[in-house]
Amino acid sequence: MPMPQPLKWILGAVGALAALVAGAVLLMAWLFSAVVGDPSKDEVARVVSPSGKVDAVLFETNGGATTSFGYEIHVVEHGTQPSGSPAVSLYGSVRSEHAYGANLIWSSPDSLSVEFLSAKSAKVNTRIQSVGTQAIHVVLREGTTDNTAPPGGMLYNLRGRQ
User: Fold this and answer.
1) What is the mean predicted confidence (pLDDT) over 6-13?
2) What's the pTM value of the predicted model, to 2 decimals?
3) Following DSSP, what letter does each residue of 25-88 receive, concatenated?
């Protein structure tokens, strides 16, 4: 039995409307992804070991307004760029009541302390990091307040609050 003409017209209109809505949703998703983009990852601190052969490098990650800052600490040969997995991963770490981040302190040529007041999560991925012929011991020191740290994120303060 053939379909009545008004029903064909209604089904055609509903199909066209559904295609239009789907297109609008895809366009909005594309525009949103262009505005939001990928999380940023910026080097915010590099501290040379007392031996001068090793660097501790701190990266700040920022996923946007609905997330906290993340921090990754890599231990590498002096002057080289980090690659691979970080030795330490922090999320939502603060140095004081108003300052995000962590401080990198070399307590000896082979011992690195990552100091912060508190964090939503803190994970040491590698307690002993091999760098060249050196074995670097990495420890977390939670509960350390840095009252001299300026308020806000580390990259924000590094760039002079632009």
Assistant:
1) 74
2) 0.74
3) HHHHHHHHHHHH-SPEEEEEEEEE-TTSSEEEEEEEEE--TTS-EEEEEEEEETTPPP-SS-SE
